[in-house]
Amino acid sequence: MKHIKRIGLSLATAALLLGASDLASAQGRRGRGEERRQENQAEREQRQQQRQQAQQNREQERQQRWEQRRQEQQNNNQERQQRWEQRRQEQQRESLERQQRWEQQRQQQQRNEQQRQQQIQRSQEREQRWQRQREDQIRQSQERERQWQLRRQQQQNNRDWDRNRDGRNDRDHNWRQRNWRQEQQQRAERYRQDWQRRQNYLHQRQRLLEQQRRLNQLRYQQRYLEQLRRDRLRLQQWRYNDYGPYNYRYRRGSSYYETNRYGAEMLQRAINDGYREGYYAGQADREDGYRFSPEDAYGYQDASYGYNAYYVDLNEYQYYFREGFRRGYEDGYYSRSQYGRYSNGGYSILGAILEQILGLQLLN
User: Fold this and answer.
1) Least confident of 30-34, 238-242, 275-279
2) Which end of the chain has fewer CB within 10 Å, C or N?
3) Signed CA dihedral, 251, 252, 253, 255: sign only
């Protein structure tokens, strides 16, 4: 029995030892599991922290990139704003410059229009004055003609016209034959002196035309001067000829003068040449955009082109040359044919106008 009790006790002890061992083993396993669990928890927390740190880093990088893009956008916007502002200022300056140019052009156009209106007004006033003067001259001429006819009729009854005329023509012929050489020398000297004065004036006038940019008027003046040079050479070879008695009468203002056939033809040429030269001078001023001013043309001031004899005085020739010149200048400036026409390659005054100016009559 005791032996059985010892065996039972041994078995109980062994069982207790086995249970304690199992308990210790279970506790050990539980301790190791807890340790592993804690280690796993720490690893998870560490990984979670790493993930959070990585996420924070990524978020910071995104924030930094966004900030950089925002800064770049701000810089780009500022640059665009600056460029826009510069373009706007440039456009404003260009607009202001265009406005200023337009205003200057408008003012210049207004000045040109005012000058043109003034020129038209002055031209109309001159035309009106000239028309009144011409009407007065016609009336005065008609009155002088009537009085002259009365005096001539009275004188015709008291003298022998043919005998006195023949005697007078003989005396005039002898006198002209004796004095023409002396007159030629005096005229050559006067012409030489006047030519030198004319040359000095021409140089001054040429510089003035160049400054005014009146190139067409300058070309006309040069052409006119070349014609005067040819006249000068021709006059040096001039010889006196007797072209018959003074059997023509012409009118100037309130007086009548007599001349021979050659003198009458020369006065007619003076008017016709004056018209032609005036037309070219007026045309040149129109093309240069210059004001209406026939008296300013050198052809009008000189008025000696074509004068080649002593049968009429130079002053008489110049008077009729200018009468034709004024009418030609007016036609050339306004591009019309009121006083003349173009034919055979040149301009010539109308016969009716020439007769109206000169009033030439053939005496018995």
Assistant:
1) 238-242
2) N
3) negative
